[in-house]
Amino acid sequence: VEDRVFDAAIELYNRAGWVGFNFEGVTRATGIGKAALYRRWPHRADLLADTLKARWLQVDDIDTGSLREDLLALAGVFLRLLTGPYGSVNMHMLMDTARYDEVRGATTDYRAGLVTAGRAIVRRAVTRGELPEGTSPTLIVDLVVGGIQNHVLSTPADLRPKMELQMYDYAQEMVDAVLLGTGATRAAPSA
Amino acid sequence: VEDRVFDAAIELYNRAGWVGFNFEGVTRATGIGKAALYRRWPHRADLLADTLKARWLQVDDIDTGSLREDLLALAGVFLRLLTGPYGSVNMHMLMDTARYDEVRGATTDYRAGLVTAGRAIVRRAVTRGELPEGTSPTLIVDLVVGGIQNHVLSTPADLRPKMELQMYDYAQEMVDAVLLGTGATRAAPSA
Lengths: 191, 191
Fold this sequence. Notes:
Chain A is mostly helical. Chain A is 71% helix and 0% strand. In chain A, helix 1 (2-16) packs across helix 4.
């Protein structure tokens, strides 16, 4: 049952954002009654938070032992999500967390988890000696995540298919530039 | 009269996006009759396009003679706009151009102008010998513009004031990493 609810909820949120995210829409799509939904999620913001956890960004399992591979995995997650069927969730979230206290409140843990996971990638690389001490995790995450987002979002519709064919190669080029620009060594030093 | 209309229109678009962008709202804010607005802009998408030209991103006058200064100027324009009173315009535009043919159509020239101006910054730097031949304009613009956007948009509300105090220093750090990562020489070679 939860899977059907999350499928419907992510589709609804992608299409309509917070202003159109409601139990009526989920009930219509799933046939599951509103009373049952309310029992499980007292507020629609709780449903949104659980839906994001279940169907949106998952980056806390990225830990390959190599900074380059970790950043490519991070870029890959964003590329897949932004070019997938729920590509607008990202922008709705950015806008809705800025505008609605209840969205910001309900998704605090989820968003903090993403930030923590991104920073952990950089911190582990510093520990392994792949990045200089004092490297800013913010800088590396902003460049990779922001660069990927801008790449997908600024591509006009008619160039989308071409962009999608090349996007994983492009992510390598981007990650390599970020590594070079932040003084990373390419491979972890042998233990 | 145009100035009053653009002021009201950018405020309305920032607040409501395309779904709430209409002549009624502009008339309410300015007292200028709908008939007069229609005479000047046959469709609300035309008003949006002219409003963006007059009140939103202006990057085609960036040409300092130095890649680093040009990229800092580009980053600065985005920082000012994203942290200013109309910081949501950017996200509305990204979402609305993806969703509404009439927005995409009316703003084609405006958006193409931004892309061209960004690429020109890189192309001039290649000509001056500041960047290797064959450097991808897309990569540099994605990293700087995307990195700045992600930095502003991912900062939680309570950390905003601190972020804004440091954002121009941060932009220097970011631009320097991008220059280093893309093989740029710091200064233009003497002629």
